[in-house]
Amino acid sequence: MALFDVVPAPAVVEPAPGSFTLQVSARIRVSPRAEGVASYLADVLRPSTGFALPVVQLEDGDRDGDILLVLGEADPRTGRHGYELMVTGRLLVIRAEEPVGLFAGVQTLRQLLPAEVESGSPAAGMAWAVPAGRIVDFPRFGYRGAMLDVARRFFPVDEVRRFIDHLALYKVNHLHLHLTDDQGWRIAVKQWPNLTLYGGGTEVGDGSGGYYEQSDYSEIVAHAAERFITIVPEIDMPGHTNAALASYPELNEDGRAPDRYTGIEVGFSALCVTRELTYQFVDEVFEEVARLTPGPYLHMGGDEVKTLEPEAYDGFVTRVQRIIAAHGKTPMAWHEAARAAVGSSIAHYWGTAAADADVTAAVARGVRLVLCPPNRTYLDMKYDDSTVLGQRWAGVVGVRDAYDWDPGSYLSDVDSTAVLGVEAPLWSETIRSLADAEFMAFPRLPALAELGWSPASAHDWESFRQRLATHGRRWDAMGLTYFPSPEIPWR
Ligand code: NGO
Fold it and tell me: Which CATH superfamily is domain 12-137 in?
């Protein structure tokens, strides 16, 4: 590997002659408060190297050949989320102000080791060399997200854990879980048990769906937290609610429960927004989800409601966002809700227009944005005409399409300071397995991760495709399914 072959591109890369080689006697020395990062690194390195790699205190004596994870004394440019990596023939040192920065540095280190490090089983006769030099690195945006639609196709806990592991490698730090939709309700709510017992039993097509018990959801949250990833739970409303409406007749305008739904049309369902019981329902659902979610956000959906008048929809949005705020969380919603969103909330912009008057006005009131334009970020769009999976309502989205745009200037009327970051949604109407999901995410997800992390000055398609070309072997070693796009000169 070369010091440059890192995705997302680091802010500063200074190669030096020589290399560091990880030996059987190496230890991982770590500052107090960062032991979790050290044991994560040991778990990554032990299976393929076969080395013991004991984790010891930083103070535990200088020895050549050790890996050091140090809190403090990093280059000041690294800030609270960045890191500095120094590699010489003698030592490999990652420094950061906070454990989250060390974790990002560990991901860079993974990518600087030979691809075989990802194989999960002993790779004999390897020289575990890391090129010498210095990297100083820090994120451009605080919100670097991916979204997984577990409603149209249910992903069991183990698959979500594996997806989270992939996100970590590319420094993605938010996973938005689309937990409910017309085709299924995926998170158990104790006060409304039929949501999952009945409403969780379907998905798109003839599958039997599934759902997360609250303990399953907590397991996902904990796995993500160990990787410094925040879970953003979405309960989509007032539309995209057929699974809830089928489970509880009293949530329907006419008091009658519809059949469960397994097709892929959108926009036909809506909660009854004029009945008080609906707000009690919303309050109790968000109360339970808030209690299970340590992260700051609760997402209320709000997209594609075709059966309500604008005033009724707006009134619902404002009231629900106040309920979310009352549970101590920051409301998030798709950008249709921006017009009625409260000032402290966040809107996911999924339009393709370069300006949107409602969004501009909302930003003026203090609403901030996460960008997910479908013609750039939707991982469920086909790569090209030959892609079997996916949809094409927003066009085909090649790797270059995903990469070659600037989140800071995408919306012409919005100042870049209102943009918290980018998100890559993986909707699952056409997805039947985790391998399908990986195929649609790779290599576009690393492209979007780079937009979120790397400085605008590092943005360069030619450089990106050359760096990414070294990652195919890494994905092969991980057993990760990906699209071998002809846009990338795979090595
Ligand atoms: C839209 C729609 C989703 C679909 C997706 C498919 C948003 C925010 N709402 O995006 O329900 O699954 O497109 O590409």
Answer: Chitobiase/beta-hexosaminidase domain 2-like (3.30.379.10)
Has residue 26 got a pLDDT over 90?
yes
3-state helix, strand, coil in the chain (%, to 5): 35, 20, 45
* Two tokens, residue 131: 């090129």
Please tell me whether residue 339 adopts helix, strand or coil conformation.
Answer: helix
**Ligand 1 midpoint to CA 427 (Å):** 7
Residues of the chain with CATH 3.20.20.80: 143-478
Closest ligand 1 atom to Cα of 378: 14
Model confidence over 242-298: pLDDT tens digits? Answer: 999 999 999 999 999 999 999 999 999 999 999 999 999 999 999 999 999 999 999
CA-based nearest residue to 231, from 185, 151, 183, 167: 167
pLDDT digits (tens, 9 = 90+) for 308-356: 999 999 999 999 999 999 999 999 999 999 999 999 999 999 999 999 9
Q: Which among 336, 348, 427 is the best mutation to test ligand 1's pocket, defined by most ligand atoms within 8 Å of the CB?
A: 427
Q: Whose CA is nearest to atom 8 of ligand 1?
A: 303
The CA distance from 170 to 165, in Å, is 9
Q: Is-above-0.90 flag for pTM?
A: yes
Which of 98, 304, 438, 450 is labelled catalytic?
A: 304
CATH topology of domain 143-478: TIM Barrel (3.20.20)
From-to residues of CATH 3.30.379.10 in the chain: 12-137
